[in-house]
Amino acid sequence: MLRGCDLPDEVVHFLAQHIPSNIRDLEGALNRVIMSSELYGEPVTIERSSEWLKDVLRMDVKAPVTVEDIQSVVAEYFSMSPEELTSSKRTAELAMARQIAMFLCCEMTETSLLRIAHAFRKKDHTTVIHARKKISELVKTDQEVRRAVDNLKNRL
């Protein structure tokens, strides 16, 4: 019971999962559900709540992207194995794929630069910094690189 309205636990859990930002947004959503229930004279259910809040619910909740996910998707995209991607080989194609993967790791994960470096069998974070700078510039000037980065982000 919240503010005189019977709010089932499953609705509360549903809202907590699908209101992505903060407690104020969650409180606003709860208020809106309660007011809609009173206005329409309908009981609070997950179905009704999702209808009343369709503009604010985030239904695409996915697991966070990991460095390993990025390595796997980038390797597949460039037709190589994840082991090749993290190898010490320095062919132009491998180096570009590796730099794009490091760039995506910086962009799409909360992983530290040092951990990203270690995931690519590099000694320190400076390689990751270089990759991030280089791909950032190439995305602005090279359509092929931009297209590859966009396609990879969509796959992830």
UniProtKB/TrEMBL annotation:
A cellular component annotation (GO) from this entry: plasma membrane
Pfam families: Bac_DnaA_C
Residues covered by the Chromosomal replication initiator DnaA C-terminal domain: 66-135
Record SMART domains: Bac_DnaA_C
Any one GO MF annotation of this record: DNA replication origin binding
UniProt cross-references to InterPro entries, sorted A to Z: DnaA_C, Trp_repressor/repl_initiator
Biological processes per GO annotation: DNA replication initiation; regulation of DNA replication
Protein name: ATPase involved in DNA replication initiation
